[in-house]
Amino acid sequence: MGILVHMNDVHPEVVAGEPIPEIEPRVDRELLELMSIANRRGRWFWVGTVGMALFFVYFHFRMWIAFTSGIILLTLWGYSMRRLRSCWRGKRMAGEIGNWLSWSVPIRINIEYMFYTVSVLMIFFVLTSAQEGASGLFRNLGLILLFGGGASVYLGRVARQPGQICCRWCEYPLVGLGLPNPCPECGKELLDGYSTTDRPRVRSRWFLWGGLVSAIFGLMVMYASIYRPGFMYGPVPRGVLLRMASTDRSAFDRLMLTPMTVDEEQRLIDAMVANHTTDSYKSSFAQGQWISQQILGGRLSEAQLESVFHKTTEIVIDAPSSAKVGAPIELRLKADYVRLPSFGVTPGYYFRGFVVDDESAAQGGDSQPHFRLYLTQSEYRAKSDVPKHTWTPLTAGTHTIHARVVLALFPGGGKATNVPIDWSKPADSMFGMTPIWSHVVDLEKTIEVEP
Ligand SMILES: [Zn+2]
Description:
Layout: H1 29-59, H2 63-80, H3 82-93, H4 107-121, H5 123-129, H6 134-158, E1 166-167, E2 181-182, E3 189-190, E4 196-197, H7 205-227, H8 229-233, H9 238-244, H10 249-255, H11 262-274, H12 285-296, H13 302-309, E5 315-318, E6 322-324, E7 329-335, E8 348-356, E9 363-364, H14 378-381, E10 388-391, E11 397-409, E12 437-450
Parallel strand pairs: 6-12
Antiparallel strand pairs: 1-4, 2-3, 5-7, 7-10, 8-9, 8-11, 11-12
The protein binds zinc ion.
Zinc ion binds next to loops.
């Protein structure tokens, strides 16, 4: 404990041989004023951060918005604390106070200041976890309560604040006693001022009990937010739950516990398409299954289907941009991986074949559906799982390759339904049955052939 008592904790009015006077508690006025200002601002930062996080949970903002808001808040905080920081630095250099805490202000000020400082440093965790929905937010608030509780228990052992001159070891007040003398309470020999302090420990059970309650409550909130998320949503009104369910998997799970009206289902479909639940890695298996059922059940509008599936149409001809006369080159298709709500709603693709310079017949195509996934991986593209055509340029100059691809999803799925395509028919009657969604893509690639 001794190291926590600073040289500065010895009151200047302690003079050997003279009775110890009653004193006005020695508070560092400058520090007190600056810390009080910091605490007033801290309240606003705290309320602002949590309010903003709730706002993000409800309206589902993108990660970069949360991140930028965090940077702005932290910058504002750092800027508004600059006077306190420079004051603190000066006093620390002069050896008057420690790095983190000063016992020269009332303990209440210290606790509040610690709470806001730690909270503000957690701005990023709180704001970015709001992306995961309310359970992510509560998990981090639980974490703050847990650490705050631990800090409180620790403070209960070390916290001090300005008070009467007392025994350095047991904090027994020494007013009226002359030094040297043994301490009337603990019997230790008090030789001079260095055996005394006017910053006695704050002996309060509140640190321990408040800290334990806070830590236990924090653990419960964390547990509930991870393992019993439905519990957190119990009091949330159904309209709010419905608004959250597209982006918040726990709110979704809670919503599914009770049957929805047709109108509610439609609102959830609209929100899921608008909020990209259908292609987000953050959405859960259950959310993906639900929206997949709605897609296969024909509940989405044409515009919504297009919004969900348009990325699957991004397919290109995979061939070198230059070639030599007489040297054969390989023409293939390739595409990037597209995340869809579930495997069951992955459209199959049909390939008509490569057409070189609008002259030859289509090469390498067929009338059967294929897995689009195979176009995304080079190990498949190298094999026979994807269309391939070897073409040997016979003349120099610019040659153009055309290719037609059709993507289609049927009530029974994509490739799985094995519905063949009739390339001779117009676009709206190429299949023997009506697809839920289909899209015709015409591809083109130019190849410079050198002599
Ligand atoms: Zn004592």
